[in-house]
Design a protein that fits this description.
The structure is a homohexamer. Chain A has helices at about 25-35, 40-45, 45-50, 60-70; strands spanning about 15, 20, 80-90, 100-110, 115-125, 135-145. Chain A is α+β, with helices and mostly antiparallel strands. In chain A, strand 5 and strand 6 form a beta hairpin. The interface of E and F includes residues 30, 36, 39, 68 and 75 of E. Chains A, B, C, D, E, F: This is Dehydratase.
Chain lengths: ~160, ~160, ~160, ~160, ~160, ~160
C-alpha cells in the first residue's frame, strides 16, 4: 500500500482505473448528515418525482468525495494533495448508479516557488455503469523531487 | 428557505457568513467510511504522533464537503451548482477545529453557449476558529437569466 | 439563519411550512443504532410481512426527531425549547414516505414564575406525502420578554 | 424478550431501571445528521465556549430518543406506544454524561372510546451519572384488555 | 437484563432463539465504512450482476457481528466472552434477508489452567428467513465457578 | 488491487503487515448500533470507571471486524473466505488504541472433498500500538487449484 515515488518518476499519460462503488440511498442520507445539505434534490423523493430527473440525485460533494476516495489506494510518502482545478459535474448520479474513477497523469510542472518540489496533475474522470462521464477534475499533488532544481531552473 | 433569484439579481461583492461546525473525530471516521480513504494521516493516531503535525488531520474532501455544506442554506430554484475552480487546501484541519465559510460573489459572466443562463461565481473561504484560512475555492453556479441575452450579445 | 425575536413579537396564528424529508430504510437502521430500539416492528421485514401493516414502520422517536428537526431552520437567541405536550402518533410512517412539518403559533402565555419570560407554544403537525397527519405535538418555548411583566401582571 | 401482558396486569407504582448510556460526541454528530438540526448549541464548540454552559449540549430530541430507547427492552405484543405527555427538559446533557431511565407505572385508565383497550402511563425519568434528573415525560401506551369493558363501564 | 449465572448453572442442551434482523443495504455500507473492506462483492452492484449470485452479498464479518449481537440480550456478570471456534460461512446473506440466531449450550469443560473458572460453549446457528443456515460458530465463554475445583480435579 | 493467485502459489511462512487503525469512541458507538450490543462494558463510561479496566472496551466483534478489514487490501478472484478457527481475544482494546494486523500463511492443505480447491490458512495477529497482541485467529480461504488433484490424491 505504500509506493514511494518522486516527481521525476511520474510518467505523463500513464493511467489507472479503480474498483467501482454503488451509490446507495444510505450514502446520500449519510452525506446529508455529514454536510448539513438537506436540499430536497437529495432528500425529498416526493418532490423529486415532480422534477426533471424524477428522482433524488447524489450531492455533488458526495460524488466528488467518493470518486476521489476510490483513487486513494496507494500511499506515496513523497506526495501530498493540495488542491483541485476545473471540477465539473457532467451528469447527475442517481441512487443505484455505480461509479468508477480513471486517473491519468496529464501534467508535470515545476512548482512556482519551491525548488525541491514539483506539481503533478492527475486528471480524474468519474464514470457510471453505462460508461458515461459524471464528473471530471484535475487533482494537484505537490511531489518531492529526487533532485531539487537548480535555482536558475526554477521559474 | 427558498429564495428565487435570477442571474441579474446577483450583486458583485456581496458577502454572507455561515454558522460554524466543529470537525469531530467521528466526522473523520464517517468520512473515511463514506469515501474508503483510510490513509494513516486520518486514521492512525499512533503514526500521526510521529509526523510533522503530531495528530490526525481531516480529509481534504471532508473539509471541502462540510465547508460547502455550510453554505447550502437557501434554495434558489433558478440556479444549479455545476463545478468548482481553484480549490486549494491552505492549512490542515485538526480534530476539534471549528470551521466557518464566508461566501463572496466574485464574478458574473455570460455562459459561453447558453443565452438563457449566466455563470455566477461564489468564492468560498473556509476559516477555522483562529480565523486562519484553511480552504478556498470558486463555486460556479449556472443561473437562469430573467431576460435572455440577444444572440449578438452572447460571446 | 439568526432571527432575534422577543415574546411580544410572536403572532398567534402565524404559520410556516418546512421542506420535506423522505424517511429511508437507512434512517430506521441509524435510529435503531442510536437508540438501541431494535424491536422487530422496525428491524425484521420478514416478521412485519405477517403483521397488520405488512412492512416495517419508523420508530415514533424517529418521526418525532426528524419532524422537529425540519423546523430547526432559524435560531432565535431569545428562545429555548423546554418541552413538548400532547405528542401523539396518528399514523405509521413507512420506508419511502416523505414527511413535512407545519408549525402554527397556538398559544402565548405568561411563565408561571418568571416575569422576564413567556411561553410560546408551536403546534407542530407532521404530514406525509399524501397530506395525512402522522404526528402532532405542542412544542413549548421559553422566550425572553422585551419588557418584563410587572409583578402584579404575572399570574 | 417478549412478555405478553394485558391492561389488567399492569401494576400501579411498579418500577424498573434501565442500563446506562454514555452520550458521546459521535451521538450528537449522528443525531444532527439524522434530524438536520445543526444549531451551534450542538455543533460549534468554539461558539459554545463563549456561552453559559461553556460546551456543546445534546439535542433535546437525542436525550429523549435515547432515554426512551433504553426502556425498549421487552416487547409486549398487547401494547403499542401512542404518545407522550408533559415532556420536559430539566437539565442539559453534555458530551460524556451517562444517562439512565427509571420507569414507573403512574396511571391506568379506560380508553375514552375503545372498550377493548386501556391506557397505561409510564412516567419516564431520565437521570445522569450524578443522579440529577435531565428529562421527564409520561409515555402513553394503548394496551389490550383481557376482558373488554361492558359498554356501560366505558366512560 | 442482568442474569447472574455460575458455571455450574449452565445446562447442556438448553437453547434460546433471538429476535430477527433484516440485513439492509445500509448495513453493508456502514460495515464497509467501519472495516474498510470495500471489495466489489459488497459494494459494486453492477459488477455483482455479472457474477454467480447476481447481487451484492453481506460481509462475513457483518453477518457474524450481527448474528452474535442478536444473542447479547442478557448480561451475566460471572461470564466473559473469550473467543470463537469453527466459525463457518455456510450460505451468502443478501440485502433484504432477515437473520435469526439460535444458541445451544453444547459443552461445559474445565478451564485448562484456572480452577476458579470453566469454559461454556454456546453453539450459535444463524439462519435466514427461509430457515437456511447461513453461519455457524462455537462461542466460548469463561465463566466463574460457584465452587472452585480442588486442585486435583483440574486437568 | 486485483492479484490473481492459485492455491499452488501461496507460500508457507510468507507474511505481510497492514496499515493501522485507531479505534475511536465513534467506532464503538457505530458498532453497538450495527450489532445491537449495548452492554455497559462498551456504552456506559460511568459504570466502566468502577470496573477492573476503568474505561470502556471495544466489542470483540469490532476488533475482529476491523482487524480482518485491514487485511482486505488485495482481491484474489481465485479465493474466497469461508471461515475462521481459534479466534481468541487476548487483551482488551480501549478507545484511542491503534491496531495493526500481521498475516502469515501458516497452512496449505487439500480440501477434504473438492479436488479442484485447497485450503489456505492465514494466521492473523492483531496488535496494538504497544505491540501487544490483542486478537489472534486463523482465517480459512478456499482457493482454486491451478491443477486439480487426481482423484487418488484427494483424501
Amino acid at each position: 500500500m505504500t509506493d514511494e515515488r518522486f516527481f521525476e518518476e511520474y510518467e505523463l499519460g500513464s493511467t489507472r482505473r479503480t474498483t467501482g462503488r454503488t451509490i446507495t440511498e444510505g450514502d446520500i442520507v449519510l452525506h446529508a448528515g455529514q454536510t448539513g445539505d438537506f436540499f430536497p434534490h437529495h432528500m425529498d423523493a416526493a418532490w423529486c418525482a415532480t422534477q426533471e430527473f424524477k428522482q433524488r440525485i447524489a450531492h455533488g460533494t458526495l460524488v466528488f468525495s467518493v470518486g476521489i476516495g476510490l483513487t486513494a489506494s496507494t500511499i506515496n510518502p513523497r506526495a501530498m494533495s493540495y488542491g483541485y482545478d476545473r471540477l465539473r459535474f457532467v451528469k447527475p448520479v442517481f441512487i443505484g448508479d455505480t461509479i468508477y474513477s480513471r486517473v491519468e497523469i496529464t501534467d508535470r510542472r515545476p512548482h512556482p516557488k519551491r525548488a525541491g518540489h514539483g506539481i503533478v496533475v492527475e486528471t480524474v474522470t468519474v464514470t457510471n455503469q453505462r460508461d458515461e462521464t459524471v464528473l471530471v477534475c484535475d487533482h494537484l499533488h505537490l511531489v518531492e523531487r529526487r533532485v531539487p532544481l537548480a535555482a536558475a531552473d526554477n521559474r
